[in-house]
Amino acid sequence: MAPHTEQLTRPAVRLRGLTRSFDGRTVLDGIDLDIPAGQFVALLGHSGSGKSTLLRAVAGLDHEVTGSGELSAPERVSVVFQDSRLLPWRRVLDNVLLGTDGADKGRAALAEVGLAGRERAWPSELSGGEAQRAALARSLVREPELLLADEPFGALDALTRIRMHHLLRELWERHRPSVLLVTHDVDEAIVLADRVLVLDRGRIGLDLTIDRPHPRSYRDPLLGEYRERLLAALGVTEDLA
Protein backbone atom coordinates (compact mmCIF):
# COMPACT_ATOMS: atom_id res chain seq x y z
CA MET A 1 0.00 0.00 0.00
CA ALA A 2 1.41 3.38 -0.97
CA PRO A 3 1.71 6.07 1.73
CA HIS A 4 -1.37 8.31 1.96
CA THR A 5 -0.89 11.45 -0.16
CA GLU A 6 -2.17 13.76 2.54
CA GLN A 7 0.38 12.35 5.02
CA LEU A 8 3.26 13.08 2.70
CA THR A 9 2.51 16.81 2.45
CA ARG A 10 4.11 17.72 5.78
CA PRO A 11 7.75 16.87 6.62
CA ALA A 12 8.47 14.74 9.66
CA VAL A 13 12.24 15.30 9.46
CA ARG A 14 13.98 18.32 8.01
CA LEU A 15 17.77 18.61 7.89
CA ARG A 16 19.66 21.54 6.47
CA GLY A 17 23.44 21.76 6.45
CA LEU A 18 23.85 19.01 9.08
CA THR A 19 27.56 18.54 9.79
CA ARG A 20 29.43 16.25 12.17
CA SER A 21 33.16 15.73 12.60
CA PHE A 22 35.24 13.39 14.74
CA ASP A 23 38.87 14.27 15.52
CA GLY A 24 39.05 16.54 12.50
CA ARG A 25 37.46 14.03 10.11
CA THR A 26 34.14 15.16 8.62
CA VAL A 27 31.61 12.32 8.67
CA LEU A 28 28.47 14.28 7.78
CA ASP A 29 29.15 17.13 5.40
CA GLY A 30 26.24 19.55 5.15
CA ILE A 31 23.43 17.01 4.83
CA ASP A 32 20.14 18.33 3.40
CA LEU A 33 17.20 15.95 3.80
CA ASP A 34 13.42 16.00 4.11
CA ILE A 35 11.43 12.94 5.19
CA PRO A 36 7.68 13.39 4.71
CA ALA A 37 5.34 12.24 7.45
CA GLY A 38 4.43 8.59 7.08
CA GLN A 39 7.24 7.71 4.66
CA PHE A 40 9.38 4.56 5.05
CA VAL A 41 13.01 5.42 4.25
CA ALA A 42 16.07 3.16 4.30
CA LEU A 43 19.63 4.49 4.61
CA LEU A 44 22.54 2.56 3.07
CA GLY A 45 26.26 3.20 3.15
CA HIS A 46 29.62 1.59 3.76
CA SER A 47 30.79 0.87 7.30
CA GLY A 48 31.95 4.13 8.82
CA SER A 49 30.04 6.25 6.31
CA GLY A 50 28.04 7.97 9.06
CA LYS A 51 24.69 6.13 8.87
CA SER A 52 24.36 5.64 12.62
CA THR A 53 25.77 9.11 13.24
CA LEU A 54 23.00 10.61 11.12
CA LEU A 55 20.36 8.54 12.89
CA ARG A 56 21.66 9.57 16.32
CA ALA A 57 21.56 13.22 15.27
CA VAL A 58 17.93 12.91 14.14
CA ALA A 59 17.11 11.15 17.42
CA GLY A 60 18.58 14.03 19.38
CA LEU A 61 21.22 11.76 20.92
CA ASP A 62 24.20 13.65 19.46
CA HIS A 63 24.68 17.15 20.78
CA GLU A 64 27.99 17.73 18.98
CA VAL A 65 26.48 18.38 15.55
CA THR A 66 28.14 21.49 14.19
CA GLY A 67 27.98 23.84 11.23
CA SER A 68 24.94 25.78 10.14
CA GLY A 69 22.74 22.79 10.73
CA GLU A 70 18.96 22.97 10.99
CA LEU A 71 17.35 19.83 12.40
CA SER A 72 13.67 19.30 13.11
CA ALA A 73 11.87 16.10 14.03
CA PRO A 74 8.56 15.15 15.66
CA GLU A 75 8.13 15.25 19.41
CA ARG A 76 7.44 11.51 19.73
CA VAL A 77 10.50 9.61 18.48
CA SER A 78 11.41 5.98 19.23
CA VAL A 79 14.68 4.21 18.47
CA VAL A 80 15.25 0.48 17.88
CA PHE A 81 18.87 -0.74 17.93
CA GLN A 82 20.56 -3.91 16.68
CA ASP A 83 20.74 -5.03 20.30
CA SER A 84 17.25 -5.20 21.82
CA ARG A 85 18.63 -3.50 24.96
CA LEU A 86 16.14 -5.20 27.24
CA LEU A 87 17.00 -4.84 30.93
CA PRO A 88 17.73 -8.40 32.15
CA TRP A 89 16.38 -7.70 35.66
CA ARG A 90 12.95 -6.61 34.38
CA ARG A 91 10.27 -8.85 32.92
CA VAL A 92 9.19 -8.35 29.32
CA LEU A 93 6.12 -6.21 30.08
CA ASP A 94 8.13 -4.01 32.44
CA ASN A 95 10.74 -3.54 29.71
CA VAL A 96 8.07 -2.51 27.23
CA LEU A 97 6.57 -0.02 29.69
CA LEU A 98 9.92 1.43 30.75
CA GLY A 99 9.37 5.13 31.38
CA THR A 100 5.67 5.01 30.52
CA ASP A 101 2.37 4.13 32.18
CA GLY A 102 -0.46 1.84 31.14
CA ALA A 103 -0.08 -1.94 31.40
CA ASP A 104 -2.97 -2.44 28.99
CA LYS A 105 -1.14 -0.52 26.28
CA GLY A 106 1.95 -2.64 26.92
CA ARG A 107 0.01 -5.88 26.61
CA ALA A 108 -1.63 -4.64 23.41
CA ALA A 109 1.76 -3.76 21.94
CA LEU A 110 3.14 -7.19 22.83
CA ALA A 111 0.12 -8.82 21.22
CA GLU A 112 0.75 -6.78 18.05
CA VAL A 113 4.26 -8.19 17.73
CA GLY A 114 3.18 -11.77 18.48
CA LEU A 115 4.28 -11.94 22.12
CA ALA A 116 0.90 -12.20 23.83
CA GLY A 117 1.31 -14.37 26.92
CA ARG A 118 5.01 -13.57 27.33
CA GLU A 119 4.47 -10.53 29.55
CA ARG A 120 5.98 -12.23 32.63
CA ALA A 121 8.93 -13.80 30.80
CA TRP A 122 12.48 -12.72 31.54
CA PRO A 123 14.58 -11.39 28.63
CA SER A 124 16.92 -14.38 28.97
CA GLU A 125 13.98 -16.64 28.10
CA LEU A 126 13.45 -14.97 24.71
CA SER A 127 15.03 -15.90 21.40
CA GLY A 128 16.84 -13.22 19.42
CA GLY A 129 13.81 -12.64 17.25
CA GLU A 130 11.49 -12.48 20.26
CA ALA A 131 13.79 -9.96 21.95
CA GLN A 132 13.62 -7.72 18.88
CA ARG A 133 9.83 -8.09 18.84
CA ALA A 134 9.80 -6.89 22.43
CA ALA A 135 12.00 -3.94 21.42
CA LEU A 136 9.49 -3.08 18.68
CA ALA A 137 6.66 -3.31 21.21
CA ARG A 138 8.57 -0.92 23.49
CA SER A 139 8.77 1.58 20.64
CA LEU A 140 5.10 1.13 19.66
CA VAL A 141 3.75 1.76 23.13
CA ARG A 142 5.10 5.30 22.85
CA GLU A 143 2.99 5.89 19.71
CA PRO A 144 5.95 7.38 17.80
CA GLU A 145 5.52 9.79 14.95
CA LEU A 146 9.05 8.85 13.89
CA LEU A 147 10.62 5.39 14.28
CA LEU A 148 14.41 5.23 13.94
CA ALA A 149 15.86 1.74 13.45
CA ASP A 150 19.63 1.18 13.53
CA GLU A 151 20.29 -2.19 11.82
CA PRO A 152 17.66 -3.86 14.04
CA PHE A 153 17.85 -7.21 12.23
CA GLY A 154 21.60 -7.43 11.67
CA ALA A 155 22.19 -10.02 14.39
CA LEU A 156 19.31 -12.32 13.39
CA ASP A 157 19.45 -15.45 11.27
CA ALA A 158 18.10 -15.24 7.70
CA LEU A 159 14.67 -16.80 8.34
CA THR A 160 14.03 -14.76 11.48
CA ARG A 161 15.11 -11.64 9.63
CA ILE A 162 12.54 -12.24 6.88
CA ARG A 163 9.79 -12.72 9.49
CA MET A 164 10.83 -9.49 11.17
CA HIS A 165 10.71 -7.70 7.82
CA HIS A 166 7.08 -8.74 7.40
CA LEU A 167 6.29 -7.69 10.95
CA LEU A 168 7.90 -4.25 10.67
CA ARG A 169 6.14 -3.52 7.41
CA GLU A 170 2.77 -4.66 8.86
CA LEU A 171 3.27 -2.41 11.89
CA TRP A 172 4.14 0.51 9.64
CA GLU A 173 1.00 -0.10 7.55
CA ARG A 174 -1.10 -0.08 10.74
CA HIS A 175 0.43 2.88 12.59
CA ARG A 176 2.03 4.92 9.80
CA PRO A 177 4.94 6.57 11.61
CA SER A 178 7.75 7.94 9.51
CA VAL A 179 10.55 5.35 9.49
CA LEU A 180 14.28 5.82 8.99
CA LEU A 181 15.91 2.39 8.79
CA VAL A 182 19.71 2.16 8.79
CA THR A 183 20.89 -1.03 7.12
CA HIS A 184 23.90 -2.47 5.30
CA ASP A 185 21.67 -4.90 3.36
CA VAL A 186 20.64 -3.65 -0.11
CA ASP A 187 17.93 -6.29 -0.49
CA GLU A 188 16.47 -5.46 2.93
CA ALA A 189 16.26 -1.81 1.94
CA ILE A 190 14.52 -2.61 -1.37
CA VAL A 191 12.00 -5.04 0.12
CA LEU A 192 11.02 -2.80 3.05
CA ALA A 193 11.36 0.84 2.08
CA ASP A 194 9.57 3.14 -0.34
CA ARG A 195 12.65 5.36 -0.61
CA VAL A 196 16.33 4.41 -0.28
CA LEU A 197 19.17 6.83 0.42
CA VAL A 198 22.86 6.09 -0.07
CA LEU A 199 25.27 7.99 2.16
CA ASP A 200 28.59 8.60 0.43
CA ARG A 201 31.49 10.76 1.64
CA GLY A 202 29.30 12.59 4.10
CA ARG A 203 26.51 13.42 1.67
CA ILE A 204 23.42 11.81 0.18
CA GLY A 205 24.86 10.29 -3.01
CA LEU A 206 21.62 8.71 -4.24
CA ASP A 207 17.97 9.26 -3.38
CA LEU A 208 15.96 6.45 -4.99
CA THR A 209 12.19 5.88 -4.91
CA ILE A 210 11.20 2.18 -4.99
CA ASP A 211 8.09 2.24 -7.12
CA ARG A 212 6.83 -1.30 -6.58
CA PRO A 213 3.74 -2.46 -4.65
CA HIS A 214 3.90 -4.35 -1.38
CA PRO A 215 4.37 -7.07 -0.31
CA ARG A 216 7.66 -7.45 -2.18
CA SER A 217 9.72 -10.59 -2.62
CA TYR A 218 13.48 -10.98 -2.77
CA ARG A 219 12.85 -13.12 -5.85
CA ASP A 220 11.01 -10.39 -7.76
CA PRO A 221 13.06 -9.86 -10.96
CA LEU A 222 11.61 -6.34 -11.33
CA LEU A 223 13.58 -5.30 -8.25
CA GLY A 224 16.84 -6.13 -9.99
CA GLU A 225 17.20 -2.68 -11.57
CA TYR A 226 16.89 -0.99 -8.18
CA ARG A 227 19.47 -3.37 -6.76
CA GLU A 228 21.93 -2.59 -9.56
CA ARG A 229 21.54 1.17 -9.09
CA LEU A 230 22.07 0.93 -5.34
CA LEU A 231 25.08 -1.37 -5.67
CA ALA A 232 26.58 0.98 -8.25
CA ALA A 233 26.10 3.92 -5.84
CA LEU A 234 27.91 1.87 -3.22
CA GLY A 235 30.75 1.14 -5.66
CA VAL A 236 29.92 -2.57 -5.89
CA THR A 237 29.51 -4.45 -9.17
CA GLU A 238 27.32 -7.54 -9.55
CA ASP A 239 30.49 -9.62 -10.06
CA LEU A 240 31.59 -8.69 -6.53
CA ALA A 241 28.15 -8.63 -4.86
TrEMBL record:
It comes from Streptomyces adustus. Residues 13-226 form the ABC transporter domain. SUPFAM superfamilies: P-loop containing nucleoside triphosphate hydrolases (SSF52540). It holds the Pfam family ABC_tran. This is ABC transporter ATP-binding protein. SMART domains: AAA. One of its GO terms (molecular function) is ATP binding. It comes from the Bacteria. Keywords: ATP-binding, Cell membrane, Membrane, Nucleotide-binding, Translocase, Transport. PANTHER family: ALIPHATIC SULFONATES IMPORT ATP-BINDING PROTEIN SSUB, TAURINE IMPORT ATP-BINDING PROTEIN-RELATED.
